[in-house]
Amino acid sequence: MNYISVTLLACILPLAYAGKVLVFPVDGSHWVNMKILIEELHTRGHNVTVLRASNSWHIKETSPFYISITVYDDGGIEALVDTFTRQILVNRREKLSFWAHLMLISKSGKAIEEMHQNQLAMMGEIFENKTLMDLILDAKYDLVLTDPAFGSGVFLAHRLGLPLVLNARWTMHGEAHFEIAPSPLSYVPIPGMELTDKMTFGQRVLNVMGYIFQHIHKARFVYPHYHSFCTKYFGDEIQYVSLLQNADIWLMRNDFIFEFPRPTMPNIVYMGAFQCKPAKPLPGDLQEFVQNSQEHGLIVMSLGTLFRYLPQDITEEIAAAFAKLPQKVIWRHTGPRPANIGNNTLLVDWLPQNDLLGHPHTKVFITHGGTNGIQEAIYHGVPILGLPLVFDQPDNLSRMKVKGTAKIVDVAELDRTSFSQALEEVLYNTSYRQNMGRLSRLHHDQPMKPLDRAVFWIEFVMRNGGAPHLRTQSFRMSWIAYHSLDVIFTLLIISAMFCFLIYLLIRYLCLKIVFKKKIKSD
Amino acid sequence: MNYISVTLLACILPLAYAGKVLVFPVDGSHWVNMKILIEELHTRGHNVTVLRASNSWHIKETSPFYISITVYDDGGIEALVDTFTRQILVNRREKLSFWAHLMLISKSGKAIEEMHQNQLAMMGEIFENKTLMDLILDAKYDLVLTDPAFGSGVFLAHRLGLPLVLNARWTMHGEAHFEIAPSPLSYVPIPGMELTDKMTFGQRVLNVMGYIFQHIHKARFVYPHYHSFCTKYFGDEIQYVSLLQNADIWLMRNDFIFEFPRPTMPNIVYMGAFQCKPAKPLPGDLQEFVQNSQEHGLIVMSLGTLFRYLPQDITEEIAAAFAKLPQKVIWRHTGPRPANIGNNTLLVDWLPQNDLLGHPHTKVFITHGGTNGIQEAIYHGVPILGLPLVFDQPDNLSRMKVKGTAKIVDVAELDRTSFSQALEEVLYNTSYRQNMGRLSRLHHDQPMKPLDRAVFWIEFVMRNGGAPHLRTQSFRMSWIAYHSLDVIFTLLIISAMFCFLIYLLIRYLCLKIVFKKKIKSD
């Protein structure tokens, strides 16, 4: 590894307690969230250092909010994600055979494996760069803040002997709760199956089978790499899972307005929609366009960070559907300009999503169903038309559908008629807006803002050198001991022996009586 | 039942949103906590009505903070508790035989059964008093607030169709968490066994066996009464446990500074030490006495609401031990004045416990180990000498002992030497004070005061008509479905059938090959 540069642009506010936070982020849409935490920490006077890859996708080398340490990396997850997600859409659109789909799933497993390997390799290079490690150790950080979607930041915290705070929604095992909180599969749906917390018997069977399948899948593609890394640097005694479960605080990018209620843990802090803010005024050109939507309202469409544009045929269908509407449409679209585009539709490279969703004219948000977008829609009470594509998007949108706040359109089946129908339902059936309004009110009815809560607990860990009083003993236990299987087995054996002794005693007594009688009768 | 009176003394503050809260409290030390919630609700402009028994022990008929509805009741738990607790102490002190102890435990089971019956009878009388029920219905309360140690308040909420908030530490099943949160017996100790969250194999066996035993005990003495009540008033379809688990918010008089960390639920709100406040100046006579303790410090002794005084012989030993100390002692003691009392010891009928514990001269708190007292000691960082007697007291103190903040003396073995030794250890071994200081700092390092948090969630339930988005689906499920036993059984059967089919197929093929070979060789 070439240790490239350390930028020193962060301006340090002179506050009473300035902590030092070392951040090992995950690139892509995950960085959007991490950046908000970093900015807030910086604003409160803490010093943040970000470990970034030289070929980083979204993580800039220079920022007014953090110092960066750039590590040479030739892997990069951008190309992988881009190819993979685009291919999935093509497959679904072209209704390729089951076989083609299976091949893609297997390929996706490979792609995910490659990403984990890449992240571990990067961490290995950091560990073996003595100059860099000394620099990090000398800086005397107060904690490591990482996103456990890729788990190598967990190793970094352990190597440095620092408290660990996770900015989490996913771990390498799947949804982060499954890692530390009891998750009864009878009412906690596993990710990726679009199930709810009210399952039929058949759905419960699917949920359990899916859980087993996902576990096997991860055991094939992911665990072995973490296991080897752990053995190489920390010996056989230490398990990756224990290091992860040993985290002081889990800041969950989630809450029970969005997610189904489920068991939780003392060291889980919910910060769903922490990135949302009241809408700011729009920039001049947008403001004028939006102002003209007063009569019929505004539709906002954006497919997030991953999808820059949809295939041309889908785009044309959507454009044609939009053209027929009386509403104004702002569409974040960076591909070729659709021929069917109407006068009411404004194509933009980028849009101030939060400010647009918070505009009183906005009637519907058309989204791929990323967590950030959905939480912004909840925050501002805007109903959703969902075009789910990959990852957690179908699940996220199905949660919104169950709560009566979203309509979902299958991209593979999308044409101008079906798209129009769905859009008009969300526009004109008031229940969607009412239900989203209810969720929005629940979100705003909290004792503390989610971002403040998150930063409080990061600062808590810095002030107190961790939060061990909130971490259960479960992470020290084997699977057998945790589930008391050894105890149950022992008690069963003892009961069986007891019953057997009773049986022997009764048998002995009966025989004796029979024998006596026999003697008498003889 | 005679419906006696409705006091109308509560002054109603003119606030924007004045909610109406119906409180069904539990008498005795539980009332101490409930009263604090009521006072705070009143201060914030809500109207509180308390349903109280005519022979109430601590719940006054008139108060500036609530309207009371008095219901005739001839049961009363005061005498029962008093006789029972006193007898336990005598038994332990006199080292009565195992048989005598067993008889007492059986008697205590009977006493507890009687208390539950009494509370249910009172609720039955309320239900059957049409005038009173109409009055309550007409008042249009926003919610029912009750302590589920006796469960009949839960029936009241169901009968009135109102949201339910619990001020809980115990339910009729035991510790309240066991009712709604997953409680792995491998690291969650059951109450009454003085176990911790780090258990040996033997302790885990004890924990599981204790859990089974307690369940059987309750099934014998408690459940049947609730079951009959439920059937009588709501029919066979409804289970008491479902009504309880259906509660909107569980305000737990606990936290993870006091309790071992364990799984929790979205609708559990921790309000441990919510009753504590910064110390106020002491009244004149006490102030003078305390001021004179500057050189060596002050010892505060109180055995709470239940125990007015200890047997005379114990009292004399304690008085003699105190007399030898250079410290000043304030002792809440209402029995006969001990002959051994020293000049340094002040006997009082009542003491401002919170203010005394918050006084900088206070070095040690001698307590029976009630939750309130321990939480006040944590709040003010005062180490503890514990004299546990009954109920949760041994458990509470064992938690403090494990955290290095308390020394425990067995009352049955207490004499002036052992008492002095223990007291001097807590006085002069600085680790007790340091550890309690750490707990105190953790308590004060919260994003929100526990009382504010509790009242926020009571008001949340009033504003939103409940909090169903925080309640998991578990309460609707049978035990078998909840643990996925039906699913596991089904999957095992399918797997077995599949294996059997494979076996049949292989057998068939083998036979065919052998058969062919035979024909050939023939």
UniProtKB/TrEMBL annotation, chains A, B:
Compartments it resides in: Membrane
Segment forming the signal sequence: 1-18
Molecular-function GO term, any one: glucuronosyltransferase activity
Segments traversing the membrane: 487-510
Cellular component terms (Gene Ontology): membrane
Keywords: Glycosyltransferase, Membrane, Signal, Transferase, Transmembrane, Transmembrane helix
InterPro entries xrefs: UDP-glycosyltransferase, UDP_glucos_trans, UDP_glycos_trans_CS
Top-level taxonomic group: Eukaryota
Record-listed E.C. numbers: 2.4.1.17
Transferase as UniProt keyword: yes
Reactions this protein catalyses: glucuronate acceptor + UDP-alpha-D-glucuronate = acceptor beta-D-glucuronoside + UDP + H(+)
Recorded topology in the membrane: Single-pass membrane protein
Family label: Belongs to the UDP-glycosyltransferase family.
Protein name, per record: UDP-glucuronosyltransferase
Species in which this protein is naturally found: Triplophysa rosa (Cave loach)
